[in-house]
Amino acid sequence: MKLSQVQEILEAKVLWGEELLAREVAHACGSDLLSDVLAFTKPQSLLLTGLTNPQVVRTAELLGLCGIVFVRGKEPGADVLALAEEIGLPLLSTAYPLYETAGLLWEAGLPGCKLP
Predict the structure, then answer these.
(1) H or E stretch covering 14
(2) From the CA atom positions of the chain, what is the Rg in Å?
(3) DSSP state at residue 19
(4) What is the pTM assigned to this prediction?
(5) Interacting residues of 102 by C-beta distance below 8 A, sequence separation 6+
(6) pLDDT at 114 > cutoff 90
(7) CA distances from 95 to 12, 48, 60, 62 (A)
(8) Confidence bin at 47 (pLDDT 50/70/90)
(9) Is the separation of the CB atoms in 17 and 88 below 8 Å?
């Protein structure tokens, strides 16, 4: 699935990275705990979260994630947007809560980050 499809499904606003929406998304992971993100995500995953701090962008960079969707209508500050631009990480925001966001993407065929 491409990020552009994710944007459509979630009726998401692109906060940064409009030109990167052709990126492929292999999996999705939803969490507000960075320790879980570190433990359970796979490269090229899309992170669904309510966290809007710089650490979430740094974690995504470290793990090779393809983008972040902020849930519940949350939007990060200018410092987070600047960091995402610096590392080339697309950021989106959806009004859906985390549970519904994950459910919509699952229903559309995007797998989660199931452990082996």
Answers:
(1) strand 13-16
(2) 12
(3) G
(4) 0.95
(5) 28, 30, 48, 112
(6) no
(7) 7, 12, 21, 27
(8) very high
(9) yes
